[in-house]
Amino acid sequence: MNAKHSALNTRKQQATPRGVGVMCQWYAEKAENATIWDMQGNQYIDFAGGIAVLNTGHRHPKVIAAVTEQLNKFTHTAYQITPYESYVALAERINDRAPIVKPAKSAFFSTGAEAVENAVKIARSYTGRQGVITFGNGFHGRSFMTMAMTGKVAPYKRDFGVMPAGVFHARYPVPTQGISVDAAIESVENIFHEDIAPHDVAAIVLEPVQGEGGFHIVPAEFLKRLRALCDQHGILLIADEVQSGFARTGEFFAMNHFETNVDLMTMAKSMGGGFPISGVVGRAEVMDAPNPGGLGGTYAGSPISIAAAHAVIDVIDEENLCDRANELGTKLVTTLNSIQQNSSKVITEIRALGSMVAVELQTAEQAKIIQNYAMDKGLLLLTCGKNGNVIRFLYPLTIPMEQFDQGLNILKDSFAALGVSKATVMEKSA
């Protein structure tokens, strides 16, 4: 670490709390598409995408142009005080694309957690019920309600006391963890028998592809049976697409891969191309349940972020990013399969839906060694999963193919160096 970064790290430790965990020990100076430069001019290929925020890359020209144009008009009025046409137009575009039984309506907020909180509010208002069922290893946010909904204690809920009542966790179907579709459905029914009556449950919330949980993809059969269970008991089904939306999976929304419709969907992250915006879209009668004033927020649907979101949708369409997600994902999976042939004792599973790709390793230590080696060579990777042993890939879908290939070569070298790196770690710890 150079002296400038070291000095900044000292300042960071003195000025900011340790609870804000930071992965990199270097500091970003500028970024463009899939490249980040640090303060020393070192380049990094970004396979992290700001945790799934940059499907259209850093500073996409169309996004920057749209934001600049809006800056020259107005930056804020608070939509619920003085509305603006761009908010309405974005709602129309989202309503049209969402796999929701029409007619649909949308409302916009600022963060993913805020979107999930509002989806729960809407569900409770519509059903007159309180209970919420979510799933183990799911992640829904860092506010208290969304922490309660998140199916992992450390680091999200640890040390923060008792969570809000009325949230219950079922088992997400993951065959490699011994959780079949039957077992997962049974776990929901067990909640009905042991914790809360179905007529007191407002909603069941799940990620069609678990994000922080390790990119586990929901089986189509499970969604179908969950939909039937919800219909039987008058429960709303909510899809949390905060991480999986906006072309990441090869479809505009991950739910477009399935025949099953949900009642509400949440979205955020790549929706704004780097600007903070989130939303809830749902069946019109459900969305209309809260009374006027029940939804909103000072910065909810910021005109700056609304402009960015319009540009993001334009880029997805004009640059065929759904097709590109499938193309890049296929190439990455081919590379990972090749690596697996040479590292069969390291890789336990490869999971992919479009460019929402993850590789599960035997241990978290292996994932960390690969992550650190890759960063040293100029490739930024993220880990996730119940045990921290999954590497996930969230590169911009706009990444140039030559740079993508360069990143894959670093990835291959990182796996090849795993044995040497692990031996060094063991030697140092002895």
Structure notes:
The chain is of the alpha/beta class. It contains 14 helices and 15 strands. The strands form three sheets. The chain has a seven-stranded mixed sheet with strand order 4-10-9-8-7-5-6, with helices on both faces. A four-stranded mixed sheet has the order 1-2-3-13. The chain has a four-stranded antiparallel sheet with strand order 11-12-15-14, with helices on one face. The longest helix is centred in the C-terminal third of the chain and has 22 residues, at 321-342. The protein is globular, with a radius of gyration of 22 Å. The protein starts with a helix and ends with a helix. Mean pLDDT is 94; it is low at 421-430.
Helix/strand layout:
Elements: H1 3-15, E1 28-32, E2 35-38, E3 43-46, H2 49-52, H3 61-71, H4 85-97, E4 104-109, H5 112-127, E5 131-135, H6 144-149, E6 167-170, H7 181-194, E7 201-206, H8 220-233, E8 236-240, E9 264-267, E10 278-283, H9 284-287, H10 303-318, H11 321-342, E11 347-353, E12 356-361, H12 364-376, E13 379-380, E14 382-384, E15 390-393, H13 401-416, H14 418-429
Parallel strand pairs: 3-13, 5-6, 5-7, 7-8, 8-9
Antiparallel strand pairs: 1-2, 2-3, 4-10, 9-10, 11-12, 12-15, 14-15
Amino- and carboxy-terminal Cα gap: 25 Å
What does the average pLDDT come to? 94
The tally of helices reads 14
- How big a fraction of the residues is strand? 15-25%
Shape: globular
Number of E strands: 15
Into which percent range does the helicity of residues fall? 40-55%
H/E series: HEEEHHHEHEHEHEHEEEHHHEEHEEEHH
Strand order of the largest sheet: 4-10-9-8-7-5-6
Q: Extract low-pLDDT stretches.
A: 421-430
